[in-house]
Amino acid sequence: MYDLVLKGGTVVDPSSGLDGVLDVAVENGVIARVAAGIPPAEAVRVVEVPGKIVTPGLIDVHAHVFEGVNRTGVNPDLGGVYAGVTTIVDAGSAGPATFGAFPRHIIPHCQTEIVPFLHICQTGLATLPDIIAESSVKLDDTVRVATQYRGLICGIKARMVSPALEIMGMEMPRLAKRAAREAGIKLMVHIGDTEKRYDPKVIHPLLSLLEPGDILTHYFTPNPGGVLDANGRLVPEAREAADRGVWFDTAHGRMNFSFDVGRRIIDQGLLPHCISTDLTVPGRLTTVHSMTEMMTRFLGLGFTLPQVVTMSTANPAKAIGADHRLGSLAVGRQADISVLQMRDGDWVVYDILGAALRVDRALAPHLTLKRGRIFTPDFGPRPWGWWPDRALPGGAVAGGCC
After folding, report:
1. pLDDT tens, position by position, 167-223
2. Nearest to 220 by CA among 234, 206, 210
3. CA angle 7, 12, 15 (to 5 degrees)
4. Burial level of 95, CB count in 10 A (0-12/13-18/19+)?
5. Which residues are paired to 252 by β-bridges?
6. 326 and 39 in contact (C-beta within 8 Å)?
7. Is the pTM of this model over 0.90?
8. N or C: which terminal CB in the chain sees fewer CB atoms within 10 Å?
9. Whole-number Cα distances in Å, 67 to 15, 79, 222
């Protein structure tokens, strides 16, 4: 007998070729069966989800959840299981000197799965700016901590920002890459200098440094160091990096996401592999509040629902090397499932420059299963009624969700 059956939802899982009204059975924390018409008598518990969208558990591949250690750290479950997200990749909140707090004080006290990257800076993002001197980076310590927590730490994080590049130049990302190689893990690199001080052409040697499996995050940034040149054309190294297996992630955040830049990149054929929030405490209040808001943006940019689901599930799972258990509703996978609701309406979302995008469909979480356990949305996403009303030309009403 199954522990649980989600019944009557529209299953959307391109990784498994599933798209239709199906039931999903869970047993012992894993997917046991996906089929139409599973008899209710075969389950201990049946949850009816007609009219809802059932996807693999959403994976936020760039967020910050070092709560209580860094001021920007969001409570993992508010950004996670209570917001429709089953797995959060912490994008380098902790460095070698602070990482021990993750396995001691953060991970044991949340239900959302956390996959951390280790910042190349000793103190991570405990203070900003992060790298303030060459002594902020200690290669041996970075490799030692990454090796000590092998199986937990997914990769090394480097931020191409001022003053780090003014102090260390390209030696900083090279050291991060060396640490990743020596520890046998991948590299994630933040691009886009919000201080607008370093040479934008630094993107050329950076992209050439990245190897298959590495992750470039914030590639829709309007700030210096992005993947577009001064004429709005993709730098050739960007396409070369994608062709050799570098993952491209859009990561919104407070200062690194532009609809115009994104459209230019998309029009030139470099589509995102992953979308993510870059969730922080201040960002959650002022820009992107949840993964479903990111998904809504990409529906508004013209992507199909299956494309958006892939960029939020299967691709992030592959990018972090967890596709053997996450990112799919295939039988035998971990029972991480997001049940979403789609609402038709008339809303406006905004990028970090204040540019507006009108959307006529929006997603919000309905419930979340993590390893088969059910969680219902709390403060995490903004329910429809929370979006402040705003008058639009023609008398329409928009939700200022970001």
Report:
1. 999 999 999 999 999 999 999 999 999 888 989 999 999 999 999 999 999 999 999
2. 234
3. 125
4. buried
5. none
6. no
7. yes
8. N
9. 33, 11, 28
